[in-house]
Amino acid sequence: MENNPYRRQGQMDTLQSYFYTDSIFEFKHLLADDNLKMIIIDSWRYLIDLKKIKIYGFVIMPNHIHLIWNILEMNGQESLAGSFAKFTAHKFQKYLSAHFPDKLQKYTSQNADRKYQFWKRDPLAINLSSEKSFLQKLNYLHNNPVAEKWSLS
């Protein structure tokens, strides 16, 4: 990865493994709803079927996601992470509008470029350049849901 001081922390190069974290705006527990988790999984499945990404591990927590993945190719001019966030946000909006309109209002955006905001800006992508770092992050993924602070087990 090039050492560019203007590079955003979520930018990724193709054909490299990354530990990727994206969080729900204001850390709200939007992803406690299994239907919204399935939107994420279905989006990844679609990108896998198109051979755009390869996923080695993931976890969906109530207010954030972690995954280890490779970006195999860009989605036209748009980054795969950007496409994923835009697509899932659209699906979240559609689902909440149909089933929980009051909950949807909690995600109203003050930004001129969008009506709702579900994902925080600037997700985190850490290049996994060694087997040691890859295995350390994979272990983190496996242990995150059973961490005491989440009370999920």
SSE blueprint and pairings:
Blueprint: E1 17-23, H1 34-49, E2 53-60, E3 64-71, H2 80-99, H3 101-104, E4 124-127, H4 131-143
Antiparallel strand pairs: 1-3, 1-4, 2-3
Structure description:
This protein is α+β, with helices and mostly antiparallel strands and 153 residues long. The protein is 35% helix and 18% strand. It has a four-stranded antiparallel β-sheet. A hairpin with a 3-residue loop joins strand 2 and strand 3 (64-71).
State the strand order across the main sheet. 2-3-1-4
SSE run: EHEEHHEH
Number of strands: 4
**Approximate helicity band:** 25-40%
| End-to-end distance | 37 Å
Mean pLDDT: 89
Estimate the global geometry from the Cα principal axes: globular
Proportion of beta-strand residues: 15-25%
Major sheet attributes: 4 strands, antiparallel
- Count every helix, treating DSSP H or I runs of 4 or more residues as helices: 4
Give a concise summary.
This protein has helices at 34-49, 80-99, 101-104, 131-143; strands at residues 17-23, 53-60, 64-71, 124-127. It has 153 residues and is an alpha+beta fold.
